Amino acid sequence: MVKVNGIKKIISEKTRVEEELKKAGIEVFPGSTNFILIKSKIPDFGKNLMDSGIIIKDLSEEWLNGFYRVSTGHLKKTMLYYQSLKIINNA
């Protein structure tokens, strides 16, 4: 039962992060893992999130420019996403 509740929390947090990313004008691609594939046209998006302590994988060199992979799952981490997105969008 503990694992089921943990999985439900991760899914819930992932959904929250996806919605916040969409509100920030970031394209979110559907997936069934704890990673979210996104595309952003915000200049220095990945660098700004990394500077804020967010673990984000810049896929520009391996794939296409402006694509990133972010992981989700823990409330602390998702709260940091929200704070960082607000700072980046106001810059």
What does it look like?
This protein is of the alpha+beta class and 91 residues long. It has a single domain, classed as Alpha-Beta Complex (Aspartate Aminotransferase, domain 1), CATH 3.90.1150. The chain has 3 helices and 4 strands. The chain has a 4-stranded antiparallel beta sheet, covered by helices on one side. Strand 3 and strand 4 form a beta hairpin. Helix 1 runs parallel beside helix 3.
What is the terminal separation in angstroms?
43 Å
Global geometry: globular
CATH architecture: Alpha-Beta Complex
* Major β-sheet strand ordering: 1-2-4-3
Overall tally of domains: 1
Strand content: 15-25%
The CATH topology comes to Aspartate Aminotransferase, domain 1
SSE string, helices as H and strands as E = HEEHEEH
User: What is the CATH first-level class name?
Assistant: Alpha Beta
Number of helices: 3
Number of strands: 4
Question: By helix and strand content, what is the structural category?
Answer: alpha+beta
Q: Which range best describes the helical content: under 10%, 10-25%, 25-40%, 40-55%, 55-70% or over 70%?
A: 40-55%
How is this structure best summarized?
The protein starts with a helix and ends with a helix. 49% of the residues lie in helices and 18% in strands. The radius of gyration is 13 Å and the shape is globular.
